[in-house]
Amino acid sequence: MIGSVATRENEGLRRGNFRSARRKIAVALLVLILLIQVLAGSVGNWLGPWALHPPRRQLDPSMTLRAEQVFARAEAVREDLDVRAPDGVLLKGWKVRPRTPNGDWVLLYHGQSDNRMGMIGYAELLLRLGYSVTLMDARAHGASGGDMATYGWLERTDTRSVAGALYAGESVHCLFALGESMGAAIALQSAAVEPHIAGVVAESAFSSLREVSYDYAGFQMSPWLGRILFRPASIYALREIEREGNLPVDDVSPEAAVGARKFSVLLICDGKDRQIPCAHSRRIYSAAGGTKALWVVENAQHASALGTEPVAFKRRVGDFYAALHEHASRHGRMN
Predict the structure, then answer these.
(1) Per-residue pLDDT tens for 153-165?
(2) Domain range spanning residue 183?
């Protein structure tokens, strides 16, 4: 009898201890979730202003000297190109012609916190193929004016100003664009509003500002972390961007741009890209209304296809533009 009473008492103690431990675990998890939410909110409040005002990489004399060496090697000639955007921002860059130009021009677009020198490797490749190029510093980057980057919202109208200046001073057979990362997103959105652009090569483009915010809110480990656990970081960041930048976040969308106007696209995504995963390029590819191709460079990190697969990059990009050039030659200019 005494033994059975003791057994029941022990079972009661065990159940009580189990319930107590379960409550402690639940409280600990709740506290952890709350801490994560507070942290995510703090990250979002920092991420929004940082996105609008990214660190500026100034163009210094050593960069210009390096560019001159590249252009000399490619037997090309550089000329300054200053363009006033519709809102008064002064955009600064270069237009560069090879010794024997084929009549086509390629607008080059660099990534976030970079400047025109970030595209110098692409410029050399294209110049050697006979293409003339423009290398512009995006607004709020390099030597260009402006204090706020908008990831395509204002930059697309900047492109129209650059294209207008180009056509005013040059004879252009076909106009193309090539960009990486932020620059790829800008190039795609620009082509939706600039009818002269016949084709775009876009590497590591984000599908929309909202979608890419999940990748950054998830610390570039998984967009699902950004969508679920760290969602407040994305919410706060986008709210700050809309408030301070006065731009509609959901309209900053290369995915929507490729469906708004039919133009040819060659999308390049890098298999080991943790910043802007291939899912973004696949979404853009699915939405594109013009002729389209998607090239996955399996061993490449973010925006590094040219360095990873230089021969294939030259062939694919060259063939893409050459086909559009040939089409324009047979059926009249594409512009």
Answers:
(1) 999 999 999 999 9
(2) 61-208+252-331
